Amino acid sequence: MLPGSVDKLFLTHLHSDHTIGIPDVWLTGSLPTGGKREQAFKIWGPKGTEKMMVHMNKAYKADLDARDDSGNGNVEGEEGIVYNKKGIEVIAFKVDHKSIEPAFGYRVNYKGHSVVISGDTRYNENLIKFAKGADVVIHEVAAAKPDIQSESIANILDLHTTPEEAGKVFSQIQPKLAVYSHIVLLGGLTEEKADLLERTKKTYEGTVLVGEDLLSIEIGGEVQVQQPVNEANSGS
């Protein structure tokens, strides 16, 4: 997938791990080798998004001047419908990332199906409300083994959702498929997938996947998952 094929970006919040890749997607996408984006690159996000992009334009001014490619648009949204075109409806809703306000999750509706993306959040009733009836829920998760927990690790965990808490979220939504993303493993976990899933089972009995790069999910009458090919085991 070339970056030039992406012309719309929805930000949950403005932490660096969620924004550091913007210049590459935005600027590389304007080049022939990057897919040569033919329309404006547009970003939706919480308050502060427009200011961030103004500074980003300044940071890359020399590059933009050389390419004559400063055309982008930024939309600072509130909770509610932030995009509705060609049958695709995107709804932003507030989540609880503690001191980071506002922080958003998103629900994408299309042809009677829906996907919910939690963004960074603690256990949050508002997310549950907006995610009711979703086919797929993609939720963040954070975990640390008890023997390595410290005050600093506890402070990080307090910004996120534990596997047990995520299970409670899934139990109330009952999606066809739950997927972990933005996986924060503090201090390292042996057999991380097994650990996360085992802890989730304490509060949720449905299907949960631990997301990974190139995992593909197709939503129709059923939810179909295509796992990424492991080249080491593919024989190629």
Describe the structure.
The chain has 236 residues and is α/β, with parallel strands linked by helices. The chain folds into two domains: 77 residues; 158 residues, 4-Layer Sandwich (Metallo-beta-lactamase, Chain A), CATH 3.60.15. The chain has nine helices and twelve strands. It has a seven-stranded mixed sheet with strand order 4-5-6-7-8-9-10, covered by helices on one side. It has a three-stranded parallel sheet with strand order 1-2-3, covered by helices on one side. Strand 7, helix 5 and strand 8 form a beta-alpha-beta unit. Helix 5 packs parallel to helix 7 and helix 7 packs across helix 8. The longest helix has 11 residues. The chain is globular and about 55 Å long. The C terminus is likely disordered.
Number of helices, where a helix is a run of at least 4 consecutive DSSP H or I residues:
9
Overall body shape:
globular
Ends: how far apart?
A: 21 Å
Mean pLDDT: 90
Rg, nearest Å = 19 Å
| SSE order, one letter for each helix or strand | EHHEHHEEEEEHEHHEHEEEH
CATH topology of the largest domain: Metallo-beta-lactamase, Chain A
Features:
disordered C terminus; 2 domains; Metallo-beta-lactamase, Chain A; 28% helix; alpha/beta; 236 residues; 7-stranded mixed sheet
Short structural summary:
By secondary structure, the protein is an alpha/beta fold. The chain has nine helices and twelve strands. Helix 7 packs across helix 8.
Topology (SSEs and partners):
Blueprint: E1 8-10, H1 16-19, H2 22-28, E2 41-45, H3 49-59, H4 61-67, E3 72-76, E4 80-85, E5 88-97, E6 100-110, E7 113-117, H5 125-131, E8 136-144, H6 151-157, H7 163-173, E9 177-186, H8 192-200, E10 208-210, E11 216-219, E12 223-226, H9 231-234
Parallel strand pairs: 1-2, 2-3, 7-8, 8-9, 9-10
Antiparallel strand pairs: 4-5, 5-6, 6-7, 11-12
Helix pairs in contact: 5-7, 7-8
